[in-house]
Design brief:
Elements lengths: L21 E2 L15 E4 L18 E3 L6 H5 L4 H11 L8 E4 L5 H13 L2 E6 L5 H11 L3 E4 L3 H10 L4 E4 L5 H8 L5 E4 L12 H6 L3 E4 L2 H8 L3 H16 L7 E4 L4 H7 L4 E4 L1 H6 L13
Parallel strand pairs: 4-5, 4-7, 5-6, 7-8, 8-9, 10-11
Antiparallel strand pairs: 1-2, 2-3
Helix pairs in contact: 2-3
Length: 297
């Protein structure tokens, strides 16, 4: 969204921010489902969460389950839910199955790793070539990754997948890296694309797709939410994700917590680590002056 490439665009001038949670401070007489103290998130994307306070209708919010940390609540709606739905919706997974993904260090990628571990499913993960690859591999393994390969370790990846064959691949990178996923998948698999971080057209060779009968799928969390907001499926998803967070099986994406006054530094660091604006920190910031109230975002 910051780059202007996301299909959900706010009207300008406007308030930025796609993710975030808030604490209900007051409710009107006609409000029935929410009460003071509830933790809530926007019902739909692009509502403008970079703000300390907001007055909205009850229909614009969704209540989160109790017992979540500030970070888990703020990041709840997008990455964990995206990971959950891709593991749930495209093919049945049983303990002992394998899932292959690229973009493994992303917020979705890390959630996929931890959710696979919670379900007894193996995860095979691809990261970009980088100087600290060994440290990143160790970090992802500590989160539950069963195998981690760099982009250039194609032969090692393919060899591993021959004896641990995945039938579901999650494609965040797109471009030519899609070929590696297709080569590793077994007969009758699903390749789910949910991102295009390479900024290149997705390459899909005829052979692996047709001769192995691989189905190409796509996923966008915003579309799913528009269709299923408030449904039994969404409520069940929220409860399961919240339980994983509460028990430590799922952890918030590595992030930095900042005051709104540090927005310039946050933008500079956004592509290195997730940035979390915290209203309580903002209101306590000496640049904000004195304040008699606290809210968490």
């Amino acid at each position: 969204q910051v780059e202007g490439k996301y299909p959900v665009r706010m009207e300008l001038p406007g308030i930025g921010g796609n993710e975030g949670s808030a604490t209900v401070l007051e409710v009107g007489d006609a409000v029935r489902e929410l009460k003071v103290g509830d933790t809530v998130i926007p019902r739909f994307a692009g509502s403008g969460t970079w703000t300390t306070h907001k007055v909205v209708s009850e229909q614009e919010l969704k209540k989160l389950p109790e017992g979540l940390s500030v970070a888990a609540s703020a990041m709840f709606a997008v990455n964990p839910c995206t990971a959950y739905r891709m593991l749930e919706d495209f093919r049945p997974l049983s303990p002992g199955d394998w899932v292959l993904q690229n973009g493994a260090t992303s917020g979705v990628g890390r959630a996929v790793i931890e959710m696979c571990r919670a379900r007894g499913v193996g995860s095979i993960n691809i990261i970009r070539d980088r100087e600290d690859a060994a440290a990143v591999k160790s970090e992802l393994s500590s989160q539950g990754a069963d195998a981690v390969f760099t982009v250039s370790e194609r032969s090692e990846l393919e060899q591993f997948c021959r004896s641990n064959t995945p039938h579901l691949a999650l494609n965040m990178v797109g471009g030519r890296e899609t070929v590696s996923l297709l080569k590793c998948l077994g007969e009758g698999s699903n390749l789910v694309t949910y991102g295009a971080m390479s900024n290149s057209p997705m390459v899909v060779p005829f052979g692996p797709m047709v001769f192995k009968d691989i189905t190409l799928n796509n996923y966008w969390m915003t579309r799913w939410t528009r269709k299923f907001a408030g449904s039994v499926a969404e409520v069940g998803m929220f409860e399961q994700i919240a339980e994983w967070f509460r028990t430590g099986k799922l952890t918030p994406t590595p992030h930095e917590e900042r005051s709104f006054f540090d927005h310039e530094e946050a933008f500079k660091s956004a592509f290195k680590r997730k940035q979390l604006f915290v209203v309580e920190r903002t209101l306590k910031d000496s640049r904000a002056g004195s304040s008699d109230f606290l809210v968490t975002l």
